[in-house]
Design a protein that fits this description.
The structure is a single chain. By secondary structure, the protein is α+β, with helices and mostly antiparallel strands. Helix content is 29%, strand content 28%. It has a 4-stranded antiparallel sheet. Strands 3-4-5 form a 3-stranded antiparallel sheet. The protein has a two-stranded antiparallel sheet with strand order 1-2. Strand 1 and strand 2 form a beta hairpin. Helix 1 packs across helix 2 and helix 2 packs across helix 3.
Length: 223
Amino acid sequence: MFREKAIEVNRLLISRGKEIIQCKQFGGQPPLYGYKPQYLLDAVNEVFGPENWYFELHDTQVIQFSENGESGQVIAKVEVFMRASEEQEFFSHGIQYGQSNIIHGNIGDATKGAITDAIGKGFSLFSIGSQAYRGELESIYNAIETGKPNNNSYNDRQPASQHSESEPAIDDELPELPNVVYEYDKSGLVLARGETYPNRFLLKRLGFRWMQEHKAWGLERAA
């Protein structure tokens, strides 16, 4: 039942188009596409019901970039708990970190933003909002933006094994990490891109190493 509900949330999100998709870019990293937090929360509440999920805030940290406190960043440490129905027990997939920039010294808004960011990453561990960390929202966002046909709808999506070598794909043996996209080629090289820093220790345990020439975490596997 839980898996079916998660799929329904994803279908609901994808049906709402570009209005609920946002594009963020950090430094020289490639742009990341994800869902706007409020729409994600609304979709989860609509399908699961607000009584079937909650979160625990473990910690927040304020990092100030200027002496007057006008700029900086807030980092939130959040754990999301979910269940399919009231007859089932809540369960969690662990703690996630969210971040939000402080603008004009408004730490309160930045704290709220960091918490919602962490909640979204927590949902992704339940395969909710999975299109974002599978790298599927970029083509949807740009297709709607330019008026081009969208060939990457949720229902028509090809399995990962049918992707071309230049397209991001999820390997069946690799874990799905929030806002991390796997890319592979015929030589057997797998690159992890996106928000890899919070997941660097897990990537190391999986055998990935930092490849400066690709500016990404890489895993060399048999072709």
